[in-house]
């Protein structure tokens, strides 16, 4: 971690899947089980391309790979069925460092929100399975935005809900799709990619690429100690 301080900021916007909670793993298991059940084996490299993308974009990838005869409707239903079986059995783990980061934001009175490409029903269920039902009172989901990430719509709505100018909202993302959405919104972005992921070219454009939410927390605490929170001019 080479960045010592964040630029002046007034709020933090979290992604959900893969950033706040380790739900991407559960989705991959469900996608591969659904593909196998329908006679379309999906390898690891293919399902990793789905990370951070809306279901419409996932279906475009599948049709590009297998042709327009790919049973997208059945795949969506089967994926949902396998996913529910998986998470009802084992839940969804929170990402390491999330609880400590949220506590730091609360102690420092820094507002925060959630902005996810997931539909509200899935976002709410994921938070419930992760034991986070009472967290993130400000939740911006795919239901509220016409265009999903990488479009900036979700982040603009989140900033408006937080009553903080977009340029003062720090975005936390784990995927290239989400990071690009934050950049498209004119927001400083911190990328926290999944361990083992190949470096993304977008890493050259974001504010920082960090290994964990613990590193995000330390960076925020250092910034707060130097009175850099909430001091930027509105605009």
Q: Could you explain the architecture of this structure?
A:
The protein is an alpha/beta fold and 235 residues long. The chain folds into two domains: 11-22 and 93-225, Rossmann fold (3-Layer(aba) Sandwich), CATH 3.40.50; 24-90, DNA polymerase, domain 1 (Orthogonal Bundle), CATH 1.10.150. 43% of the residues lie in helices and 9% in strands. The protein has nine helices and six strands; from the N terminus they run βαααααβαβαβαββα. The chain has a six-stranded parallel sheet with strand order 3-2-1-4-5-6. Helix 8 links the parallel strand 4 and strand 5. Helix 1 (24-37) packs across helix 4 (72-90) and helix 5 packs parallel to helix 9. The radius of gyration is 18 Å and the shape is globular. The protein starts with 10 loop residues before the first strand and ends in a 10-residue tail after the last helix.
Beta-strand fraction estimate: 5-15%
Query: What structural category do the secondary elements indicate?
Result: alpha/beta
How many strands in all?
6
User: Ends: how far apart?
Assistant: 29 Å
Q: Name the CATH superfamily assignment of the largest domain.
A: HAD superfamily/HAD-like
Q: State the CATH class of the largest domain.
A: Alpha Beta
Order of helical and strand elements = EHHHHHEHEHEHEEH
Q: How many H/I helical runs?
A: 9
Integer average pLDDT: 92
What is the architecture of the largest domain at the second tier of CATH? 3-Layer(aba) Sandwich
What strand order characterises the main sheet? 3-2-1-4-5-6
Radius of gyration: 18 Å
Entry summary:
This protein has 235 residues and is of the alpha/beta class.
